[in-house]
Design brief:
single chain, 386 residues, alpha/beta, 8-stranded parallel beta barrel, 29% helix, binds pyridoxal-5'-phosphate
């Protein structure tokens, strides 16, 4: 089964470009809201780093999600898209002063703090403005996610977060500082997680930590479990919307929320991954000694995931119904890693055929670069094109 695209409308367009199916994005957002709203106190934020295209941000803001930012630039992009600052959270191991000041000036909801030196700087900068910054501590729960090694973040060896054994001392430290207010705990164990057991392990760890804090009479208002829910890269047509029910139900069932506590989520990939495709044109079919290459005009400058993480993306020839042949689908960049897929089954391709690289809505357009002096790809929505 192939995806459906307005191929006639694409015909005149300069390639490569990202195409976003807004109907699917809106259906995904509806599913998130429906499932999260089954549970009291669940608040969903969108991890802006997955895709900061203004048209995508606008749709997500309109659906009522908050914004999870990891840089000052993302805070600016979120504010520009109309996210209220009261719904903006800001995480990151290396926040620079201007970024912290931007958050303070806009009274964002919360800084997710990853070290004591950072806490001290936020306190100092807030003091200079006569403000009190709300802070949550990002703890490293030492929970492994069964995903690619480069995208696990919750192991003790990773650079992220504060070690669990330091939890109480950082909370005590915060209580001594007058310009920060401790409001919560933050976690994020990794990305592209499809095994609910990984999220269960995180819930168990948080339950232990909460018991520990309770013994010291420390109250936590907000628990933030980060994001990480994966998508089905193999079957974007069959499974266009991730199983949000299983995801939220896992937390509802396993995590022991205390009276009045709010549970925050920061979903990135699961929100935007499936709605985006990279559309590229076949330049040449090259017959190699042992195989055929389908050389396209997109490269890893447009979509780096295959080169960076050996990520799989389903690839379709959307201009042909001819018999299937196997091709290595490669880009024009002068690097051997510029390969989108090896021995990919495509309907027979020829020069000019449009190729869709699917499930590219997350960590696609936003990670594009200009290596080889290439142009950045543009992003178009189905609202604009149809
Ligand atoms: C990247 C990131 C997310 C989103 O991750 P996804 O796998 O795209 O859901 C959420 N929270 C933090 C802190 C992150 O760094």
């Amino acid at each position: 089964m192939k995806g459906t695209f307005p191929v006639d409308r694409f015909a005149q367009m300069r390639t490569p470009f990202y195409y976003y199916d807004m109907e699917l994005l809106r259906a995904t957002l509806d599913a998130i809201k429906k499932e999260a709203n089954q549970h009291e106190g669940f608040v969903v934020h969108y991890a802006v780093k997955a895709n900061a295209n203004p048209k995508i941000l606008l749709a997500i803001r309109q659906a009522g999600l908050g914004a999870d930012c990891v840089s000052g630039g993302e805070i600016e992009a979120s504010l520009k898209a109309g996210f209220p600052s009261s719904k903006i959270v800001y995480a990151g191991v290396g926040k620079s002063d201007w970024e912290i000041n931007l958050g303070l000036d806009n009274d964002i909801f919360c800084f997710n703090v990853e070290s004591i030196p950072e806490l001290e700087v936020i306190n100092e900068l807030a003091a200079a403005k006569g403000k009190v910054a709300r802070v949550a501590f990002r703890l490293n729960p030492n929970v492994g996610a069964h995903t690619h090694a480069n995208i696990t973040t919750g192991l003790a060896e990773n650079k992220f977060g504060i070690a669990m054994r330091d939890m109480e001392s950082v909370i005590a430290e915060a209580s001594k500082l007058h310009h920060v207010k401790f409001v919560g705990l933050h976690f994020h164990i990794g990305s592209q997680i499809l095994d609910m057991g990984d999220f269960q392990a995180l819930c168990n760890r948080i339950n232990e930590l909460q018991d520990q804090l309770e013994r010291h009479h420390i109250r936590v208002e907000h628990i933030n479990v980060g994001g990480g829910l994966g998508i089905d890269y193999q079957h974007p047509n069959r499974v266009p919307i991730p199983d949000f029910k299983a995801y939220f139900d896992t937390y509802a069932k396993r995590l022991k929320l205390r009276q009045g506590q709010t549970l925050h989520f920061e979903l990135g990939r699961a929100v935007v991954g499936q709605c985006g495709s990279l559309i590229t044109r076949t330049l040449y079919i090259k017959e190699g000694a042992t195989k055929k290459f389908c050389i396209v005009d997109a490269g890893f400058t447009d979509l780096i995931r295959p080169a960076l993480y050996q990520a799989y993306h389903k690839i379709e020839n959307i201009c042909s119904d001819e018999p299937i042949e196997a091709y290595d689908v490669v880009g024009p960049i002068c690097e051997s890693t510029d390969v989108f897929g090896k021995q990919v089954d495509l309907n027979r391709a020829q020069r000019g055929h449009l190729i869709a690289i699917r499930s590219a809505g997350a960590y696609g357009e936003i990670m594009a670069s200009q290596y080889n002096c290439r142009k950045l790809p543009q992003g178009f929505t189905s609202d604009e094109i149809i």
